[in-house]
Design a protein that fits this description.
Helix Hairpins; 18% strand; 12 strands; Heat Shock Protein 90; five-stranded mixed β-sheet; Beta-Lactamase; 9 helices; alpha+beta
């Protein structure tokens, strides 16, 4: 079932339910009013009957009877009863009326009482004439109510039927109108494929859910377009980086085999091939690490890692790779509580990720001082690496985590553009963030935030 139909049905059911409840209350209140109105008629009849039977001194009985017969409408199946009250509140019953003794006692006690038996209504009043008291009872069949309620039911049902038709029509119109922007978005998205990812969804109107939906689609298309571009760049750069050492190895081998050479020439050719093979092995291993860290890490068995020990291990690795480095650990931000310096993860992977960052800081700062700091809160551990290097050009910042991408000012430095993408994947596996701030010619600050254990 389409959403448009669901909206129409929900709107119709809700509205019809509200109208039905209102009709029920109208019918109920009309019924109660009809009862009260008929009882009031019977009460007037009862007082006129009593006054006509026992007129006050100086009044004319004929006048009451004339008013009752000429100006009051005769009620259907009307009956009148006058019962004298004997001593002890006993009733002198000359006629069988079919009322319970409680009815008479209620009239004596309250002065008025009503009773209903099907369509026949009874009204009893207490009337005193001289030294005697009487119970005057008037009964009639309420045929007016039956006809009135029948007409009311017919009117309410007719109105409900017309309202239902109008509600369904209005619901269809408004559901179509409300969902029209969604249909435009659907038609636009159907036109977008891998060959035209530059297209975007347009949403007209205010700041509503449709605008939010369009923005969400556009953000998704931005990510897809960047992913496609990254993939294309990765394939192009990977093929280039892999083909270069292979070409050198093949060339050296062909040159060595082209004619007889002396031992030193063969050794030089084999050395060149070994150097290019090591380069190829390094690129291949880096690509393998990069592919392995593309998983979400759910199957990894994480351990408790002390971030201060992690920093010391990274410093040890850098000292071994670059003995004359000027990396210094800044202890000023270290937390006093040791339990705050715990994260869940893989010590080896985090060591690899941070070693890549610090190694880049040492390399691109030409071995100038590099600061390695640690701060911790209740929710996260923050590792900060600052250098005084060449910095990263602003246009290159969005692409520094793309495989094989190298900033435009890094040509004098050796590298393959795999370290930062590998670091990004490792930090992402640990549900962390990596934030880069850089100024050309002034240096770079990289902040790694990991959730505390």
């Amino acid at each position: 079932m389409k959403i448009r139909t669901k909206i129409m049905l929900l709107f119709a059911i809700l509205t019809v339910s509200i109208i039905s409840v209102m009709c029920f209350f109208v019918y109920y209140l009309a019924t109660q009013y009809s009862f009260e109105d008929f009882y009031k008629r019977l009460e007037i009849r009862a007082y006129l009957t009593a006054t006509a039977a026992f007129p006050p001194v100086g009044t004319d009985t004929l006048a009451y009877n004339y008013i009752r017969d000429k100006h009051l409408e005769k009620l259907p199946s009307e009956n009148e009863y006058i019962l004298r009250i004997l001593p002890g509140n006993k009733i002198e019953a000359h006629h069988y009326i079919g009322l319970q003794p409680e009815f008479y006692q209620a009239v004596i006690r309250e002065g008025r009482e009503t009773f209903r038996n099907g369509d026949r209504f009874y009204e009893g009043i207490l009337y005193t004439s001289g030294e005697n008291s009487y119970i005057v009872i008037v009964s009639a069949v309420n045929e007016y109510m039956s006809q009135y309620m029948t007409d009311l039911r017919r009117i309410l049902l007719t109105c409900l039927t017309v309202a239902l038709a109008l509600i369904i029509g209005t619901g269809l119109f408004f559901s179509r109108y409300i969902l029209m922007p969604v249909h435009r978005i659907i038609d636009r998205v159907k036109d977008i494929s891998s060959s035209n990812l530059h297209l975007r969804v347009e949403a007209h109107g205010g700041n509503d859910e449709i605008r939010e939906l369009a923005d969400t689609f556009n953000n998704m298309l931005d990510r897809l377009e960047m992913a496609f571009e990254t993939q294309n760049n990765f394939v192009s750069n990977a093929s280039h980086e892999l083909s270069t050492p292979l070409t050198a190895i093949i060339g050296e081998a062909e040159l060595a085999l082209s004619k007889e050479r002396d031992c030193l020439s063969y050794r030089a050719a084999v050395s060149n091939m070994l150097r290019e093979a090591e380069r190829l092995e390094h690129i291949t291993r880096s690509l393998l690490h990069l592919a392995q860290t593309g998983f979400d890490g759910k199957k990894e068995s994480w351990d408790m890692v002390r971030t201060d020990e992690l920093l010391f291990a990274v410093k040890h690795v850098i000292d071994r790779i670059t003995p004359d480095n000027k990396v210094e650990i800044d202890y000023s931000l270290f937390p006093e509580e040791e339990e705050k310096m715990n994260v869940l993860g893989s010590f080896q992977l985090l060591e690899l990720a941070l070693s890549n960052i610090v190694s880049n800081a040492v390399k691109y700062s030409s071995n100038r001082p590099v600061s390695l700091a640690l701060a911790a809160t209740n929710s996260k551990n923050i590792i900060i690496v600052r250098d005084l290097g060449i910095g990263i050009p602003v246009p290159d910042l969005p692409y520094i985590f793309s495989p094989f991408f190298r900033a435009s000012n890094t040509q004098p430095f050796k590298g393959y553009g795999i370290g930062l993408p590998l670091t990004k994947n490792i930090i992402r596996m640990h549900k962390g963030e990596i934030i880069v701030n850089s100024r050309m010619g002034e240096g770079t600050e990289i902040r790694v935030e990991l959730p505390s254990a």
